[in-house]
Amino acid sequence: MLDQTCFLTGLGRPWTNIQRVMTPSGNDGYVVNSQVCGTYYIHQNLCGPEPENPQMISYLKTLYVNDLHILAGFTLRRSEEGKPVELGRDNIDKILRGISIPKGPLEQIDLILSYLYQQYANGKSPESYLQLYEHKIARDIKYTIAYAKGAKDFTWLINKALEFGYLESDQSLAIQPPQNIRLSLKGFDRVQELQKSKNSSQVFVAMSFGLDDAVFEEGINKALEDTGYSAMFLKSEIHNEKIDDKIIVEIRKSRFVIVDVTDHRPNVYFEAGFALGEGIPVLWTCRENDWNEHEAHFDTRQYNYLLWENAEDLREKLRYRIEAIFGSL
After folding, report:
1. CATH fold of 202-325
2. Main-chain dihedrals φ then ψ at residue 278, nearest 5 degrees
3. Which of 31, 169, 230, 259 suits a disulfide with 272, CB 3.0-4.6 Å?
4. How far lies 21's CA from each of 10, 24, 30, 226, in Å?
5. CATH number of the domain at 105-194, please?
6. Which helix (H) or strand (E) holds 93?
7. What is the tens place of the pLDDT at every residue in 136-188?
8. Which residues are within 8 A (CB) of 131 and not within 5 positions of it... i.e. 6 or more apart?
């Protein structure tokens, strides 16, 4: 009998159903329907035992055991967009490089609030509570949506959101874990603040004008077209290290900003700093050879840079990252 344990969370029935299939790419594998991870495909050579190495439980759980919660959050997002992920040895590293992990608990809480907001947008009444746990498993709210490592971590995030006043519960905080929660008015306000620029399909692009035109046209612009966004790239030079009014306006109108630091031009860093100051997400990219030779400015190295070799490589990697963070339009 086929084991019904999710490869990413370890949850079995009744939360998981697995069937042996030929995956969409033609590989031997499984389709997993999980209440926590959504629907995803996984190749047999990634999740199965290693005949040549009996000590290795599986390629996935041996080499990627610390990344399973990240993959679970990603598969849930893609499943809810109607685009199930296919995981295999040939693409798992590329997928992981393209996932933007929340930079701490505050961003994780924002993901929870946004997810709750969407449930209400889909028809739930604002005064109705959502059931959080059933036998210690998140029911109406999937703990993977916040890239939490499990129910314990997720409970901690929920409690902090309750303390901040973003959520309300029909029980005392002394009762743990909380069972039923809903967005407070402060929570609704927080989500609307987060969504100010999210309705825009425009993406501002900041990059060196000295790069080959193909980097923008065949790399960045194609990745945006692939995901349904439109690029705003102002090619006029900026002098005296100042951001002019036109750039300020266009950054504020954008859903997010792509910043390529290849050549390390000062104006690119200024535009990135302005966007961050406005609370607009920034995706950082750099040509791999340039990164190795010069590195980025020291105060931006903590960001998850996407490194590329050529325009085609940039297009593919950037498309993955955009879909992982913002989804396609």
Report:
1. Rossmann fold (3.40.50)
2. -85, 0
3. 259
4. 20, 9, 5, 28
5. 1.10.10.10
6. helix 92-98
7. 556 667 889 899 988 889 889 999 999 999 999 887 655 666 778 899 999 99
8. 139, 140, 179, 180
